[in-house]
Amino acid sequence: MELSTAAYVILGMLRLGPLDEPRHGARSGYDIQRSLAVSVRYFWNLSPAQIYPELKRLEQAGLARGHPAPRGKRKRRVYELTPAGQAELQAWLRRPDPAAFEVRDLALVKLFFADAVDADDARQLARAIRLRSEAALDELRNRAIRGAEISQQKGDRFPLATGALGLALHELLVNFARGLEEEIARASDSAQR
Amino acid sequence: MELSTAAYVILGMLRLGPLDEPRHGARSGYDIQRSLAVSVRYFWNLSPAQIYPELKRLEQAGLARGHPAPRGKRKRRVYELTPAGQAELQAWLRRPDPAAFEVRDLALVKLFFADAVDADDARQLARAIRLRSEAALDELRNRAIRGAEISQQKGDRFPLATGALGLALHELLVNFARGLEEEIARASDSAQR
DNA sequence: CCTAACATGTAAACTGTTACATGATTCC
DNA sequence: GGAATCATGTAACAGTTTACATGTTAGG
After folding, report:
1. Which of A92, A81, A86 has its CA nearest to residue A59?
2. Distance from residue B155 (CA) to nucleotide C8 (C1'), in Å?
3. For a Cys-Cys bond, which of A41, A50, A78, B152 suits A45, CB 3.0-4.6 Å?
4. Which nucleotides of strand C lie under 7 Å from a protein CB?
5. How many angstroms separate the CA of residue A159 from the nearest CA in chain B?
6. What is the spatial distance between Cα A160 and Cα A172, in angstroms, rounded to a whole number?
7. pTM score, two decimals?
8. Which nucleotide shows the minimum CA-to-C1' distance to residue B102?
9. What's the pLDDT tens digit per position in B89-147?
């Protein structure tokens, strides 16, 4: 059985259950969106247009079970893992398939080419990277880490571990950019005299 | 004038010139592929299928100039920046458009979900991340850093700076994964007694 | 009452990769 | 002679995002 990455991510989120409730269990497509937005999306993002059709496919494949669960008059459908879904998730986690660590960042591309502009403009590029990661740190602390702490209380430790990696990554970027800003300022200063 | 990201990456590479020659200047699509593979591809990758059509478009837009430059009977076309191309590159570098730092990595996704499997399997996931980054460090040192040092001799300092960031990133990943492996081993040890 | 967030989706567009095709040259 | 690399591309496919459509409910 070969599933898309989106399918495995959704299986994993179904297993974790809603972040803001103290028990594991069923969740809607929207719940999954919200949880992704403060956790896995830092390593793999899914759009709503991928989530809803995939939930249906998982249900048809017998890996998830859906129930109608309207809130008031608003229709809503919640899903939970089946034993087959749990087994499929575990098989995927244990399967050693090659995975690349890929970064996609235009700001770093610009920095790579920064010799084409003068020192002031280059410093702005480094500064933009620093400001962005400082904002990311704020957001991570307020959202990803809080959610992961709740998961940990439910016995899931790895969300917090990966959250810590996110923090460390952006701290590294802040320090890198700050160092570069200072170096550029020093170099253009000494070039001026 | 609105160009694709691929276009700007190619303009930037045209400006840098071939890595292995001591002067700036014209380069073929293949040269660009090779240089990308040891530099910008760590932040933004392009496939050959994007490079060749884009070079033609850049030529038609007057941003690059192409000349036939066959090697023996093998046909080949080299390109160089026009003044308009240089200006467009600089305008892009100075334009403060929002850029996200995006990571895509299935291994980290698996780690996030690692509570679904037992300690041994979870440790394997951390180990896979460590081994992969150790290999990446080797490759970066042997290829990206060497190329960046040549660029620096030609007066371009930022390729080396971004190369250093790549090293720091993977060193962080190695340390993170190693710490996690030890923690998992300790935890499952103490759970066993 | 109005706005923001909740909630579920679909169609079309876009981006990007894979696989393939072709042929020359260099190195073992 | 055969393999690897040089060199240039195209067509088909896969993956993803954007924009839209639709209606509900809670809060100011």
Report:
1. A81
2. 55
3. A41
4. 6-12, 15-19, 23-26
5. 5
6. 18
7. 0.93
8. D16
9. 999 999 998 889 999 999 999 999 999 999 999 999 999 999 999 999 999 998 888 88
